[in-house]
Amino acid sequence: MRGLWRPRVLGSWRVPPTGPAILAVNHSHIVDGPMLMGTAPRPVHFLIKKEAFVGPLDPFLRGIGQLKVDRDGTDRAAVTGALDVLAGGGVLGIFPEGTRGEGDFAALRAGLAYFALRSGAPVVPVAVLGSAERPGRLIRGLPPLRSRVDVVFGEPFTADDGTGRRTRAALDEATVRIQERLSAHLADARRRTGRPG
Fold first, then answer.
1. Do the beta carbons of residue 143 and residue 149 sit within 8 Å?
2. Rounded Cα gap, residues 145 and 89, in angstroms
3. Which of 7, 27, 168, 174 suits 108 as a labelling partner, its CA being 20 to 30 A distant?
4. Strands 6-10 and 67-69
5. Could you give the CA distance from residue 118 to residue 132 in angstroms, rounded to a whole number?
6. Residue 114: which of 72, 69, 173, 157 has the closest Cα?
7. 128 vs 30: CA distance, rounded Å
8. Residue 88 CB coordination number (10 Å)
9. What is the DSSP string of 165-193?
10. DSSP string computed for the chain
C-alpha cells in the first residue's frame, strides 16, 4: 500500500494491542480492505465475498487468513470462522454496510452487532478516506498512484447495553448504537483530515 499510495494513518494506537477486536470500516472503494490490512497495527481477518476467491487470489486470501462468505444467505461456516477469530483473541474486519456504497455507514446490517454482542469484543471504528475521490489516469478503477489516502482509527467501544441480552431487540438496539458511533467517527475523521463529506 505504501508503495502505490501515500497512506496517512491516524490513531492506530487506539486498536487494542491484545485480545479480540472488531474493526468496523466504511467501504466506498475496492482498495479500502487492502489499505486497512496494510496499515493496521495487527493482522486483520476480513469477511470477504466468495466471488473474490478465484484463481491465484484464492490461496493468497486464505493464506493471509481472510474468511470466505456467501452473501446470498446465512453462511454458518463464515459466522463460525469469524467467531473463532475473536475467540482466539484476533482482529476481525467488517464492512458493516455489507458492500461498497457511499461509505457513510448509512445502511448498516445487523452482522456487526451480532459479532460484537456474541463475542463481547470492542468495536473500533475506522474511516478510510480519499480512496474514491477521483479515478487514476493509468488504472481508472484505482485511486491515482501516489495519492494520499487517510486511514483514521476511532475510540473503541462496546456495543452492548450492559445487560448481557442477546435478543432480537438487543441486536436492533445495538445496531442503532453502533451506527451512531460510526457516523460520528466518520464526521470527526472528515473534519480532522479536511476530506469532503
1. yes
2. 35
3. 7
4. unpaired
5. 33
6. 173
7. 11
8. 9
9. --SHHHHHHHHHHHHHHHHHHHHHHHHHH
10. -TTTSEEEEE-GGGS-SSS-EEEEE--SSTTHHHHHHHH-SS-EEEEEEGGG--TTHHHHHHHTT-EEE-TTS--HHHHHHHHHHHHTT-EEEE-TTSSSSSSSS-S--THHHHHHHHH-PPEEEEEEESTTSS--SSSTTSPPTT-EEEEEE---B--S-SS---SHHHHHHHHHHHHHHHHHHHHHHHHHHT---
> Among 15, 4, 2, which residue's Cα sits nearest to residue 152?
15
Give, for all 197 residues of the chain, the pLDDT tens digit.
Answer: 666 777 889 999 999 999 999 999 987 667 777 888 889 999 999 888 888 888 888 888 888 888 888 877 777 888 899 999 999 999 999 988 755 444 444 444 668 888 999 999 999 999 988 765 555 455 555 566 666 788 999 999 998 888 877 788 888 888 889 889 999 999 999 999 988 65
What cell numbers appear for 85 in the block?
Answer: 477469530
Instruction: State the amino acid at position 23 in one-letter form.
Output: L
Q: What is the pTM of this model?
A: 0.84
**Cβ–Cβ < 8 Å for 80, 8:** no
**Rounded CA gap, 10 and 149, in Å?**
11
